[in-house]
């Protein structure tokens, strides 16, 4: 209801502006204050007219968009994109768990190999020795 009243008011205002005479500033001397004042009024009226037509065009565009199929498609796309993001997040989470499990398995295998190797014993012996000759002694 408010939109209809607003539309009617703007329609009548635009009609009254088009029916009214255009202000003629040429009757004044171009260097006088009256000419500047007249030009300012003329410019103000033109800007009001432009504003009103722009507002009407924007309102018409909003109405067309609200009733268009494009709006429905955009709403559906938004829902789909949220679902897509959720699905991608779940896949990424599963993949990261798999990578973590394989990394843990490889680390555990490496620890077992190191514990059973001769290198571990030599490193412990090197750590505990105070001199090189003590390290080089064969046991």
Describe the global form: elongated
Which class of secondary structure composition applies to the elements? Answer: mainly alpha
SS field, number of helical segments: 5
- Radius of gyration computed on alpha carbons: 42 Å
How do the helices and strands follow one another from N- to C-terminus?
HHHHH
Distance between the termini: 102 Å
Key traits:
139 residues, mainly alpha, 5 helices, 83% helix, 0% strand
Give the arrangement of secondary structure elements:
Elements: H1 2-19, H2 33-66, H3 69-116, H4 118-128, H5 132-136
Helix pairs in contact: 1-2
Description:
The protein has a domain at 2-97. Helix 1 (2-19) packs antiparallel against helix 2. With 139 residues, it is mainly alpha-helical. Helix content is 83%, strand content 0%. The protein has five helices and no strands.
A few lines on this structure:
The chain has helices at 2-19, 33-66, 69-116, 118-128, 132-136. It is mainly α and 139 residues long.
